[in-house]
Amino acid sequence: MRIAPTTREKINTKQHTEGSVANEIAGLVVHKFEKETHAKGTIVPRKTVIKVTKPVQRLVDALHGLYSDKASKGYGKFEDNEDNFPMQRRVREYFIDKSSDFLDFSLAAMGILKGKADDAPLSTGGYVLICHLVSGERNYLLFAIVTETLGSAITENLDIVDSEHVDLSNFRLAGRIDLTGWTEKIDRYIGFLKGKKSEQVSGYFRHFMGCDDAVLAKAETQKLTSALQAFASQNIADVKERDAWLGKVFDLCDELAKKKAPFIVEDFCNAAWPQEPAAISKVFSDASVELADGFVPDKAALSPLVKFQAQTNFWKVEVTRKAFNDGQAVYNSKNGTLTLHNLPDDFKQKLNAEEQDE
């Protein structure tokens, strides 16, 4: 795999790195994993770590940026069983105990990868990039399987020639371990891409990383509703149009809840914001959200999209957004009061009876 670009061959990473901040590379290696479907894999190891150069930095920044921007991810933590899922043990030896260096860790990781890939008949090989990077004050381990693609280049003599380069646009298997989050014992510190390919293929990569991705549907749905409300506030100025859109996305999610069907980020973004699906998927992939792909929405947790609810020791109220738009409910922010119009007759009769008794 060629990394450094020459006058004849370029790595097309500029579009992914402009405006981004370079990550500090603490360790980087690329090994080759040769495997065809329904066959066992073979590891072709690199014997030394890769020296950090400008082309190397560009490639890592591009891969990390692409991974971060992709919305269809799963999240989790290390599996408890380190015999069946030994990645946590290897990470501990490298990052905590310091009993193995980065190259030794990468070779151990390749052994885990081969074992899991061999158990997935549809998996194929590629170049396996393993990188320890520092972004801000956080340490990460980034894993990605990339391939080469054939393109064209123009030489100094203005001839057109074939040129192979790293295909960043189609990498499908990647994951990241937040080492800082792991040591701080946060709930979720592993992420991995979830594509539309066979679960057997993406699943083996999750198993390679030793990731337990059990998802709490209610918690994910609450994150979803909060993200959608924030997106609507920032992108739809007209209140009625905003509420109509929130009603639309509620219907999309409610239908999934009724059918017990999974929430697929890419499909949802195409349906919810067809004019620019990437705009809404970016919200889901933001580090403060990190919405998991594939959970079944919790019906009750969707309600904030279309209604407001509150209660005290003395009363409980639930008002739909449509009620405010139609003037059936009026909120006075100055004095903090809520006025409800057109009360049901039976409710008024009950109140009238109470008033007469007094």
From TrEMBL:
Keywords: Cytoplasm. It is found in: Cytoplasm. InterPro entries: Nucleoid_associated_NdpA. It holds the Pfam family NA37. PANTHER family: NUCLEOID-ASSOCIATED PROTEIN YEJK (PTHR38772:SF1), PTHR38772. Belongs to the YejK family. This is Nucleoid-associated protein YejK. The gene is yejK.
